[in-house]
Amino acid sequence: MFERVKAVQGARWIIICFAVLFAAACAQTKPDGLSSNVKPGTGQDFVVNVGDRVFFEEDKSTLNSQGQATLANQAKWLSRYSQYTITVEGHADERGTRQYNIALGARRAQASRDYLVSQGVSASRIKTISYGKERPVAVCNDNSCWSQNRRTVTVLNNATN
Amino acid sequence: MRKILNTISVLAGLKAWGRVVLVAVATLMAQSSVYALVEIDITQGNIEPLPIALPSFSAEGGDSKLSADMTSVIAADLKRSGLFKPLDPASFIQKNMSVNSTPRFGDWRQISAQALVTGTVTKQPDGRLRAEFRLWDVFASEQMLGQQFYTTPENWRRLAHIISDAIYERLTGEKGYFDTRIVFVDETGPKDKRVKRLAIMDQDGANVRYLTRGDDLVLTPRFSPSRQEITYMSYGGADPSVYLLNIETGQREIVGNFPGMTFAPRFSPDGQSVVMSLQQGSNANIFKMDLRSRRTTRLTNTAAIDTSPSYSPDSQKVVFESDRGGTQQLYVMNANGGNSQRISFGPGRYSTPVWSPRGDLIAFTKQHQGRFMIGVMRPDGKGERILTEGYHNEGPAWSPNGRVLVFFRDTPGANGGPQVWTVDLTGYNEQRVDTPAFASDPSWSPLIN
After folding, report:
1. Does the beta-carbon distance from B217 to A97 stay under 8 Å?
2. Can you say whether the dihedral through the CA atoms of A25, A28, A32, A35 is positive or negative?
3. Where would I find the H helices in B102-152?
4. Which of B282, B308, B330 to mutate to test the interface with A (most CBs of A within 10 A)?
5. Measured between CB atoms, does A97 come within 8 Å of chain B?
6. pLDDT (tens digit, 9 = 90+) per residue, B253-307?
7. What is the rounded CA–CA span in Å between residue B366 and residue A31?
8. What whole-number distance in Å separates Cα of residue B297 and Cα of residue B290?
């Protein structure tokens, strides 16, 4: 079970890298820049073509313009694919104390949730959870990693790939 | 000459721990005066450790490895406290000590021993162990203490810790902390996929036992001051929540029925309630739940992160951290909420406050200029002292006698991870507690005996 989840996540990252590296030149890319090698309306479509995460400054939970744009795109996508409910995960970097970071992650999740609601996503479709500093995605010892960990991730609860 | 007094006190026995029975031992010679020569004044800042000789306990008709192992555990306890310097057995002049004869004090003065412990371990016909020891004041040539214990053989380490506590208490005038355990979070696997399990060990790192299997993320276990119970946070349910776990029976229950995530739990001094944070939208506030009546009480109500509550030992106050003023700082409020006063004013951010069981100090984590420190201050916020600092030190918890703090120290990078350390109030005596893997969030049990 655990191994299977890992493999799926790995595949997701490979697809993201592919999309980033070849977005401009790739023959399969549509004129609007979206990658066509994923089926529209799937979890992959959401991660690759919309973006599932937004990032935050140190000890902050305010959304920057890039984060707002990502969330607005998420809202658009979610209105088209209304079968999904979502969980917004809030995360913090490792340079804080455990309990505070749990609350800080919750605050970030709430900020993303509120923005999605302001963009028309029904609050009843959204659940939030905070993992504090417990689930980093980048593990190096400088801000290039810590900044990737200060994030919210919008997860489709009933996605198929 | 020798007779065993008939005063018997039964130590608070815990089922899983077996029972240890203490019997006082008559002195071999005139009991020392009130003013013993050997004493440690632990009120001073930097302490010169007391030279103490611990010749291996004799094994009368018994297991000499066991008696040597017990002596080693006692010596290690005393050494780790930083208050004692066990002398090298190779330097001992008098060999083959018997617990039943008066030492040749001159031989021990010659190697500068100030205190001497003699002992014996025997196996009784009924299978129990009998351990007897005497503590001697070398310069006064007097016995300071003599005790005898009966217990089951599998309890031998615990018996050694009880003897360490008796020696510590007689020589320092304060309760020891060796017959105790530490609950912590065992961490295995890569940094981005850590598996966390609740685990418990003796205070010296021995007898590690796992309390959860690692299926669910678990954080911040805290010992009950009155029962074999811990409270902790788990991601096992619908919302991450505070749970209780009975460490004898394995019985587990959720604390309260809160609408949302609860975290940062801690018991009240009587063990009858739990204080914790409840996440409500962007804000975290502090609530208390009475474990008998199940009644919940809101203690704070701010648009901020209020967390890490910890009671004063008299149950009158609660210290906690809040970012209501912009950054994490420490506040003290009344135990029923209200009258919050900020107490931390130094440069940096203060968090994870925990009130000393003696009431005189509050320990905390402090972040300043990318460094993480463990420090203490008085409950009015004055007298701040940093005991250790470095890349990442976090989450202090007190030994039951209020002399030592246990905390975790993290190391950077992909292969880094937390380990459990102790530091005493002088700040000079730092020790790592050996754990099987990475370990974090330590919390000390009360004294068992």
Report:
1. no
2. negative
3. 105-110
4. B282
5. yes
6. 999 889 999 999 999 999 999 999 999 999 999 999 999 999 999 999 999 999 9
7. 53
8. 8
Residues B106-159: tens digit of each pLDDT: 999 999 999 999 999 998 899 899 999 999 999 999 999 999 999 999 999 999
B351 close contact with A: CB closer than 8 A: yes
Which stretches of chain A drop beneath a pLDDT of 50?
1-31
Question: How many Å apart are CA B129 and CA A138, to the nearest integer?
Answer: 54
Residue to substitute from B185, B218, B258, B263, interface A, most A β-carbons within 10 A: B263
Cβ pairs bridging A and B (under 8 Å): 90
Residue B29 — pLDDT band, cuts 50, 70, 90?
low
Q: What are the distances in angstroms from CA B41 to CA A3, B45, B52?
A: 58, 10, 15
Q: Is B78 helix (H, G, I), strand (E, B) or coil?
A: helix
Under a CB-based contact definition with an 8 Å cutoff, are residues B119 and B129 in contact?
no
Single pTM value for the model: 0.89
As for the ipTM of the complex, it is 0.90
State the DSSP H helix or E strand holding residue A151, giving kind and residue range, or none if neither: strand A151-156
Which residues on A lie below 8 Å from B413 (Cβ)?
139-141
Residues of A in contact with B284 (CB under 8 A): 103, 106
Binary contact (A137, B394; C-beta < 8 A): no
Nearest residue to B78 (alpha-carbon basis) of B194, B163, B139: B163
State residue B311 phi and psi, 5-degree precision: -75, 150
Query: Closest by alpha carbon to B422, among B446, B439, B398?
Result: B398
Measured distance CA(B89)–CA(B116) in Å, rounded = 12
Q: What local confidence, expressed as pLDDT, does residue A37 receive? A: 79
Count CA atoms within 13 Å of residue B360 on its CB side: 6
Burial class (CB in 10 A: 0-12, 13-18, 19+), B133: buried
- Taking contacts as CB-CB distances below 8 angstroms, the residues of chain A near B258 are none
Distance CA B35, CA B237 (A): 59
